[in-house]
Design brief:
alpha+beta, Bact_Acetyltransf, transferase
Length: 151
């Protein structure tokens, strides 16, 4: 809960037309906490400044789907390419393993090749593609579904 304001500020910087179907702007701290419950993020901090996070949740409320965490990751542009995203991925994999999770899943826009490359580097594989799922900035983009299978 103490990181909510900093995560909200990071979301406003990171989630734009290249990384999200539409910018992510929380209307209030309460709105954020309604959608992102406390304890559903691991955060990266440099010099007491939150510079990244990885969020996780069950993709559905169905009991038979609770071996999967759907994740989202954000690193402030100022701190990208310093290994923070990789460390966050390692941490969420370890946390998920401790929780008995068997698979991590995520969604990424086809218009974000840097993110696709990063996720592949982290061991994620493309499981599917929703073709022309979004119309962003005058063009159609695919929603790429990726998964990482725990050992």
């Amino acid at each position: 809960m103490k990181d909510a304001q900093q995560i909200m500020a990071l979301d406003a910087v990171v989630w734009d037309d290249n990384s999200s179907p539409e910018p992510l702007n929380w209307t209030s701290r309460e709105d954020f906490l309604r959608h992102c419950q406390p304890g559903s993020q691991l955060v990266a901090v440099v010099d007491e400044q939150l510079c990244g996070y990885v969020g996780f949740r069950y993709p559905t409320m169905i009991r038979t789907n609770q071996h999967v965490f759907e994740i989202n990751i954000a690193v402030h542009p100022q701190y990208q390419h310093e290994g923070i995203g990789t460390r966050l991925m390692e941490m969420v994999k370890a946390w998920a393993s401790e929780q008995g999770i068997k698979k991590l899943s995520l969604r990424v826009l086809s218009s974000n090749p840097a993110a696709l490359k990063f996720y592949k580097k982290c061991g994620f594989v493309i499981e599917g593609r929703l073709v022309n799922e979004f119309h962003v900035n005058g063009r159609y983009v695919d929603d790429v579904l990726m998964g990482y299978f725990m050992n």
